[in-house]
What does this fold into?
Amino acid sequence: MRLQPRRSPSKPEFQVNLRKYIVLAGITLFAAAGDSLLSRGMKQVGSISLNHLQSAIFAILNPWVAAGIILLLAFFASYMTALSWADLTYVLPATSLGYVLLALVAKFALHEQVSPMRWAGIALIAGGVGFVAGGPSLTSHAHRERLEHLVEVDPAEISSEVEV
Amino acid sequence: MKHFYANLYTWSAILAVVFASVVGDVLLSRAMKQVGDVGALRRRRGLWTVIVRVLSNQNFVLGVAAMAVAFFSLLFALSWGDVSLVAPGAASLTFIGNAFAARIFLHERVDQRRWIAAVLVAGGVALLAG
It folds into this structure.
């Protein structure tokens, strides 16, 4: 949400602009890339038993695992950013696009076989995301009113915010 | 009978994962709504303020704790059941659970559009791992 002066109430509420789509894309990319790197690293490290938890610490030393963790932290940061201006039920389908991305990477970069059932799954997820993306990003009025109370800035600052 | 108990354990662990991640998602979402648009806050007060406000938010701390519980329940579930059942099962039930929880606890307007999306995504995730 951009802090807008009240004089433009007719504009579609909390329209998701380009910067916000970049954050949503970041959620998808970081989750997919982080999971892949982590999975690749953990295959090198081997399975960790509950009796040897110290080996989990050594797993972090594996460069693939370390890179995966950094990307998953980036995922978490973008997820939190998105939740600061959009509904949970708006952001969550975006996180599922990561599965689609992984399947496409498997097919076109790794030349793995993608079964018809997986293509059907990809179609369902893509359809679901399309459904949500067409709607409003923030609907929780109770929270929004509270947000407007919480904003303690003077009007001069607000008007300098309306740049994008 | 042994099979039955193995299934029971697996499904209890899956439900624990779903419950903990729904609680975590709701708490994290509430926390971030309390903090407000972090992009605007960062431009106004700087990144450090954003980090301090997020990390000192009680709902955020509880939400991360719930996510940790979800993660460890997932480990237990994976040790009892097949990954091809546990991972998609937990993920798709979490989508449905979140739609309910967002409506009840976050007062989001989960309209027909979002219900259809939740069901489609849940089904799609289940198919992908199948």
Remarks:
- Chain B touches chain A through 45 residues (CB under 8 Å).
- Residues 31 and 57 of chain B are 6 Å apart (CA to CA).
